[in-house]
Amino acid sequence: MPLLFIECFLEKANIRLLTITGKLRLVIDTGIGNIAKNCRGSSVLNTKKTAVIGLGSMGWGAALSLLKAGFVVRGCDVRSEVLTRFAESGGTPCTTPASAAEDADVILVYVVNSKQVEDVLFGQSGALETARPSTTFLLCATMAPSATTAIAEKLEAAGMFVIDAPVSGGHVRALSGEITVMASGTPEAFDKASAVLDAISAKVFRLGDRPGAGSQVKMINQLLAGVHIAATAEAMTLAAKAGIDLKTLYDVICVSAGSSWMFENRGEHIVSGDYTPRSAVNIFVKDLGIVTSEAGKAGAVTPLAAAALDLFEEASQAGFGLEDDAAVAKILAAKSGASLPGVKD
Ligand SMILES: NC(=O)C1=CN([C@@H]2O[C@H](COP(=O)(O)OP(=O)(O)OC[C@H]3O[C@@H](n4cnc5c(N)ncnc54)[C@H](O)[C@@H]3O)[C@@H](O)[C@H]2O)C=CC1
Ligand SMILES: O=C(O)C(=O)[C@@H](O)CO
């Protein structure tokens, strides 16, 4: 069918075709709210109002992806400068989780750890104070599976739907709406959140019907991610010590068998000497802490994760906790007497 004919037909029927972050979407304006359907085959949903709690490296990207996809987005953060930037980007800034949660159909929780998640949900001015029953919560922070399960049970007891939805892909993929989601929850929860998941991700893995299963898989990803960052830092430090040009090394390894997603991503930060946090050292103190403690409970040995955790803890104690996690290289460089770009000897 000629494209012009399709366009005229869609215009008459009040249907707009939008391409957002490379995904083709149909938006049908019913006058009472949009019904969006992703043309790559996901379900139709009329969810319109969303809230993102925690507008940091990952939550910011998710919030912007939702705005681009046509959702109304309330965003909450404790940092006022972030709220100002969010308002400038078209979002509705909120100073408390309770005000962000009012009226929301789906709420995405993107703070750092389980303690913060509990605070923003169940604490004073927390989301549960105002969220309507049957609101769907996406728990996107990386937490121990047991913590995720306990939080999900508390939300469900209050009449909410929950998806355990930890994410992967870093700040850049969050911004482009292309993260991977390691998700678990009831089919009903997935139905309610499918348009939101489509807007923020390139791939959603459904890993089970109960919250906790997603966090278990994410924990394994974090074992690999943490070890690969530490290995990248070690490789770069040895290369620097051996007098190899780091940019040349980076180009060679990226197309060789020693590479990894983390080598490509964090290796670039080390080569350019840029430790602006896209994911902070302290995140891996948390995540590898989860890995080693859960492994201990399960009776599994994780010597590589333990060695990597030691390095991240050392980096944190040396004052690099809020820098990009590639700063673990600074510890190895100092011990090796090696010079890294942008790092004072
Ligand atoms: N940065 C990354 O590349 C990735 C991070 N993750 C996970 O995603 C989660 C978020 O990580 P990031 O975005 O890197 O952290 P972040 O530190 O950049 O962002 C967290 C945000 O939450 C806000 N916040 C903290 N307490 C709050 C409260 N009570 N009320 C409102 N806002 C509050 C902070 O001000 C901050 O803006 C973590 O669980 C992390 O492990 C997962 C995949 C990748
Ligand atoms: O993307 C992921 O997966 C990660 O966990 C890291 O980027 C760091 O948090």
Automatic annotation (TrEMBL):
Alphabetically sorted, this entry's keywords are: Carbohydrate metabolism, NAD, NADP, Oxidoreductase
Output the PROSITE patterns linked to this UniProt entry. Answer: 3_HYDROXYISOBUT_DH (PS00895)
* Enzyme type, top EC level: oxidoreductase
Q: Residues in the active site?
A: 218
Q: What's a Gene Ontology MF term here?
A: oxidoreductase activity, acting on the CH-OH group of donors, NAD or NADP as acceptor
One Pfam family in the UniProt entry: NAD_binding_2
Output the GO biological process annotations, alphabetical, semicolon-separated. organic acid catabolic process
Catalytic reaction(s) noted = L-threonate + NAD(+) = 2-dehydro-L-erythronate + NADH + H(+)
Which EC number applies?
A: 1.1.1.411
What residue stretches are annotated with the 6-phosphogluconate dehydrogenase NADP-binding domain?
50-208
Q: Indicate the segments forming the 3-hydroxyisobutyrate dehydrogenase-like NAD-binding domain, all copies.
A: 212-331
Q: Which family does it belong to?
A: Belongs to the HIBADH-related family. L-threonate dehydrogenase subfamily.
User: In UniProt terms, what function does this protein have?
Assistant: Catalyzes oxidation of L-threonate to 2-oxo-tetronate. Can use either NAD(+) or NADP(+) as cosubstrate, with a preference for NAD(+).
Name this polypeptide is given:
L-threonate dehydrogenase
List the source organism.
Rhizobium hainanense
